[in-house]
Amino acid sequence: MGQERIKRNRLKERIHEIIFEADTFEGKAFDVLLLISILASVIIVMLESIPEYDALYHEFFHITEWTFTILFTVEYLLRMYSVYRPRKYVLSFYGIIDLLAILPTYLSLFLAGSHYLLVIRGLRLLRVFRIFKLGHFMQEGDIIRRAMLASWAKITVFLTFVILMVTIVGSVMYLIEGDQNASFSSIPRAMYWAVVTLTTVGYGDITPVTNLGQFLSAVVMVLGYAVIAVPTGIVSAEMISEVRKNQVSNQACRYCGREGHSIDAVHCKYCGELLNE
Predict the structure, then answer these.
(1) Single pTM value for the model
(2) Cα 78 to Cα 259: distance, rounded to the nearest angstrom
(3) Residue among 110, 228, 219, 135 nearest 172 (CA)
(4) Which domains does the chain have, with CATH numbers?
(5) pLDDT of 70-106, one tens digit each?
(6) Is the alpha carbon torsion for 251, 257, 261, 264 positive or negative?
(7) Cα torsion angle, 210, 211, 212, 213, sign
(8) 27: Cβ–Cβ under 8 A, 6 or more apart, which residues?
(9) 3-state DSSP: the chain helix, strand, coil percent, rounded to 5?
(10) What distance in Å separates the CA atoms of residue 150 and residue 131, rounded to the nearest whole number?
(11) What whole-number distance in Å separates Cα of residue 153 and Cα of residue 37?
């Protein structure tokens, strides 16, 4: 029993090294092959959406799609098997993305057309930063993530103010234009116009015709630039304060599968387990 357990542990370590690590030849070759497969599967789904190509190569697309799905399913199961705490991997960012990358094909058995959601596999290409040792890109991505989290409270307050402004402006515009302009047939329609105008998108499908309505429209357009500037400034300030100094290694934790550790890290900063045993 003891020898069998040792063999199983060695097998798990070997699979983990190939699938999660990019420092060995086998690990890098596996990851490069994985990236090529992901890119090819996304292209197949995109080509399948073109009626002319689907009519000619429908059977080929169908077989190829299921082949990639089966391969990615096996890979997902091996990832769960090779970590000591599968639940940590399953609930991690990459674990969720890996699962979503295979679900649409199985879902298409019950819901027609859902396999087009397979384009979500493109998110798995984010692993390119780890595979090719672009640690500084991972670091910059972590800075953006932490800056967004730190800005969430401020942005929530700001969005609440914008929603109130849209409601008030839409109601006022309905009062001004409602009797003379069929486009402003209700307050929700006027609120839609306020959103489009305040965000400086300006579809032009709804426009005011009265002088007072056009004046209010000009005021909302000017306010729109402030709407863009405020959240940008909030996030930029947080990004500056979240700059990290430590380099990031390519090593993934054997217990939870998460990455982003410092070069000299001994323990996983997420679960606390030893990185090297």
Answers:
(1) 0.56
(2) 18
(3) 219
(4) 2-133 (1.20.120.350), 143-241 (1.10.287.70)
(5) 998 998 998 888 888 888 888 888 888 888 888 888 8
(6) negative
(7) positive
(8) 17, 18, 19, 20, 21
(9) 70, 0, 25
(10) 29
(11) 40
